[in-house]
Structures are given as C-alpha cells and as structure tokens.
Amino acid sequence: MTIPKIIKPAFHVTGEKGWINDPNGLIFYKGKYHAFYQHYPFDTKWGPMHWGHVVSDDLTHWEYLPIALKPCDEFDSFGCFSGSAIEQDGKLYLMYTGVVENQGGETFRQNQCLAVSEDGITFKKLGIVIGEDILPSDYEPWNFRDPKVWKHDDWFWCAVGAKRRDGTGRIVLFKSKDLFNWSFVGDLFNKDSGGTIIECPDLNQEQGYLLYSEQFQPKSEGHQNVHTSYWAVGEMDYQNGNYKATAIGTMDYGFDLYAPQTFTGAPIVIGWLNMWDRNVPSAKYGFAGMLTVPRKVCVKDGRLYQTPVVATKDAIKKIVDKSLSDQVVKGVITITATELKQFNLKLRNNGENYTELSLIDGKWVFNRSRSGEQIVGVETDEDSLAGIRRMPWSNNHVTTLTIVMDEFSVEIFEDGKVLSSTIYPPEDANGLILNVKAQSCTYQKENV
Ligand code: FRU
Fold first, then answer.
1. Is residue 143 part of a domain?
2. Which of 322, 320, 347 is nearest to 335 (CA)?
3. Nearest to 352 by CA among 436, 426, 446
4. Residue 357, beta-bridge partner list
5. How far is CA 54 from CA 61, 66, 231, 259, in A?
6. Quick one: 292 and 438 in the same domain?
C-alpha cells in the first residue's frame, strides 16, 4: 500500500489535523510565545470549537501542546469560542466565549468565561464571569463574543464583540478589579457595522490601536472580501470608556486574512490565513486552515505599519539586471528597487501554473487564477471572480518588497501594508521569474 504524501506548511501554524480558524489567547508567557487557536480536531470542517495550543521561542518554529480547552462543560457545551490571555500573579488566564444551545435549541447563548493555568499547559475552567445578566437588554445575548482582556492602571478591561437589537454591530466594554467580578462600562466603539456583528476586537493600549473584524459587509462600502478585518488608530478614553478613531484602514489587501490578534506582552500580530465561506483544498491532506506569519506592528504616520517576523538563515543576494530566475517554495524573498518603473513576478511557476504579482497603474496586482487548485468563495465582484487582489504601491524612491512564501501561502509586504493569500499549486511548480525595470534592483532569498 502506498501511503499518500502529506504536504504541510513549514513554518505556518496549522492544526496537527482537522480544522482551525481564529488565533486565540496570544501571549508571551514565561519566556515563550503561546498561540492558541479555534480548533475542531475531528474533521476538516468547522465544528464544536476547542482551543488548540502551540508554543515557540522564535515565532517561526512551533511545538504542539495538548488541546487547552474542550467544549465539555454546561457553560460551553456548544463551543469554546475565541478570546484572549493575560498573566496575573504568575498564572496564565484565558478568557473565552462559552457557547451553549438554548433549551429547545432555537437560539444560542454566549457568555464570557475564564480558565487558569499554573504551568501554561493544563487549564482549569472557572466558569462564566461576564454573563448576559450584566449585558444591557438592548444587545443580543446570542451575539456576544470574543473577549479581549488587558490591564490599565488598577483595572482589568475587557472588550467584547456585540450587536444591538437594532441591528448595529458594536464593541462593548467591561471593567473589573479582579478578573472575576465585572461591570458594564458602555459602547467602546460605535462603528455601524452595516447590520452585522463586530467580531474579535483587539485593543492594544501600548500603541493605541484597535483591530476588529466584520462578517457580511454591505457591498456599497467597496470591500473586496465579504468578511474583512480592520485597524483603527486613535485614543482610548478610559474616563468615558470610549475609543476615538482618527483613521481606519484594512489589515490586509489579500484574499485570506481574518480575526487578527496582538500578543499580550509583545507588539506582534497573528491572524487566520484563510476566510469563511471558501473551500480549503488542503482538506485532502487532513487539515484545513492556518495562521499568518507573525507581523511586527507599530503606528507610524497615523496608520498601522506591519512587517513580517521570520527566523531565517543562509541569505543569498543577487543584483538584478532586468530579469532573474530562481527556484523557491518556502522562504523569504526581498526585492529592493530604486526608481521602480515596471515589475512582474511569477511565483510557484511550472509554465502552466503560476502566481503573479505585477505593478499596474500604481498598484500591486496579485493574481492567483492560475495558481493551482481553485478556491471558490461568496464574493461576486469582477476581481474576486478573476482571482485578483490589489494593494496600493508606496511609489517611494526605494521600493522594498518582502514576500513570505510557504507551502500554500504567499504574504506580500510593502511600506507597512500586506496582501496575504493562500495558493494550492502542484508540487512541481517551484520556479520564480522576476522581470523588472528600475534604476537598480537587488534580490535576496533567505531560507527558513
Ligand atoms: C471569527 C469567529 C468568532 C468566533 C469564532 C468561532 O472568525 O466567528 O467571532 O468566536 O469565529 O469559531
């Protein structure tokens, strides 16, 4: 019997097997980076949510730990949904949404729960700490999830994704002195999300930004993905429990990014490198869904600025005179061009299949229509149907493009902006062809 070869990403987190979605509880705890994730280990489709768990010293090499949370108690029997982590008195606390089916099964209830660990590996559940009894009655208790906890002054603060009964998406804020007894503060963020819940809020008090995700947005607002994640920069007014945004932008211009979260204790963001409502071709290898490469983030010139974090080795540098060919499946490619005029790059190329990045009318144009196995989503706009995503080009005197490649993914960074997409090329598609017109250009390849 021949055992089919299983292909997996080399340095992007996936489940050991089964389904994963949002990153959860990201924290730098006792000298290690801990990442948890929404996980259904028994199928390559979404199911009752567990929290999978990995740790790393360098954010590139990850080690699996036992599943941290399972949906097996009366307050989370339908699922342990997304949440965050905080360290207190040396212990690691996870705050997550316990989902239960109503009696009669007609609707769900979502409450915020706590779990604690002394060793960062095994967790003891402590039950509901923010229940629907302290959520004002003008919010829907079945759309109340994804707690993000942080400490400021002498208080713990918790932002939770919510929806008013009038249909508007909100983020609501709670505060507590001890992580167990919470009180409602108010609406943290009032962006009318176009009739859908706001999910996975992530307020970063060190740098003053807020990340959030929205499902099923109105087409009129011109989003390329039906489900999109955003950053907002601005200021938190703790007096009134209000976040005032001065600018809002998209977290990622690609096909596949949702539910990004920041590590507690480090200015690093990881998101889900996938998207709701699309087929996931890696299911044939027994896993579906992965996490993005970690991104170092800061607020610069009034916007969120993101750069990849990868532990690399063996850098090779070449000067590019018009064109260059190479072979790359995994690694980090950096292309630096002065006075860039024209650009075309084919990745994972075997002649018939390739993934393309071009500079057209002042924008990066990414095309995965010929990448390999097709991915079909719910988007119906022309670009989506043609496999295209666009990202603004900085038009700087020196353009520095960093491309993180792994099995099944391409993440393109330029001037703090990102375009991330999954791709499923055939195994023999490993060529790279660069054509460029610039005053000068260098190409660098680093292995992982
Ligand atoms: C976001 C989300 C969260 C929820 C989780 C369930 O992708 O819908 O709001 O907690 O996924 O898996």
1. yes
2. 320
3. 426
4. 345, 366
5. 10, 8, 26, 18
6. no
Distance CA 46, CA 49 (A): 8
Using alpha carbons, select from 156, 159, 164, 251 the residue that is nearest to residue 203: 159
Distance 215 CA to ligand 1 centre (A): 10
Nearest ligand 1 atom, CA 227: 7
Report residue 110's pLDDT band, with 50, 70 and 90 as the boundaries.
very high
Measured distance CA(326)–CA(340) in Å, rounded:
21
Residues 303 and 373 placed together within one structural domain of the fold: no
Q: Which of 211, 216, 215, 202 is nearest to 230 (CA)?
A: 211
Q: Give the residue among 222, 258, 273 at the shortest CA–CA distance from 382.
A: 222
3-state DSSP call for residue 89?
Answer: coil
Least confident of 118-127, 165-174, 352-361: 165-174
Q: For the segment 354-405, what is each residue's pLDDT rounded down to a tens digit? A: 999 999 999 999 999 999 999 999 999 999 999 999 999 999 999 999 999 9
Show the tokens assigned to 140.
């829907």
d(CA 437, CA 320): 10
Q: 80 C-alpha to center of ligand 1: Å?
A: 10
Sign of the alpha-carbon torsion through 295, 10, 57, 23 = positive
| Residue type at position 336 | T
Looking from the CA of residue 83, the nearest atom of ligand 1 is 10
Indicate the pLDDT class of residue 128, thresholds 50, 70 and 90.
very high
Residues 379 and 293 both lie in one domain: no
Residue 272: domain span: 18-308
- Count of domains for the chain: 2
- Amino acid 89 reads D
List, chain by chain if needed, residues with CB within 6 Å of any ligand 1 atom: 21-22, 38, 49, 81-82, 97, 145-146, 199-200, 258-259
pLDDT at 57 over 90: yes
Q: pLDDT by residue (tens digit) across 239-275?
A: 899 999 999 999 999 999 999 999 999 999 999 999 9
